[in-house]
Every structure is written in C-alpha cells, then in structure tokens.
Design a protein that fits this description.
Blueprint lengths: L22 E2 L23 E7 L2 E7 L3
Antiparallel strand pairs: 1-2, 2-3
Length: 66
C-alpha cells in the first residue's frame, strides 16, 4: 500500500527492546517460541533485517533470504 506523504522517522533505542515494535536490525522480539529460518542450500541461518507492526498486527519479520 502506498501512502502519499508518509515519512519514516528512525530513533535509536535507549536500551534493550523487549516489545514487538517496528525496528530495523538487531535481534527479533519473539511473540512465541523462536523459529529462526535456515537456508535449505547452506544450512546457515538467514540474517534478520527487521520487524514490523503492520496495520495493528505485531511481529511480522523480514529476513534476508539470499
């Protein structure tokens, strides 16, 4: 969904983030038991990119799957 005029504002956290909020980098805040995705080809874990709240739904993750 494109939101004309929408702006992003980045703010550094003052300490550890323990709530499922929108964030870029760091480690995910898990809502349930951690389930880190792994590559079928290499067996290595995918790097965590960010976590987003999306229209009131918390805990959507973004992984670098390359």
């Amino acid at each position: 969904m494109f939101l004309p005029g929408a702006r992003l504002r980045f703010v550094s956290a003052a300490g550890p983030v323990r709530a499922p909020v929108t964030r870029i980098g760091g480690r995910p805040v898990w809502l349930e038991e951690p389930q880190w995705p792994f590559s079928r080809d290499t067996g290595r874990p995918f790097p965590f990119v960010g976590q987003f709240t999306w229209f009131g739904r918390k805990g959507r993750f973004l992984w670098d799957c390359v």
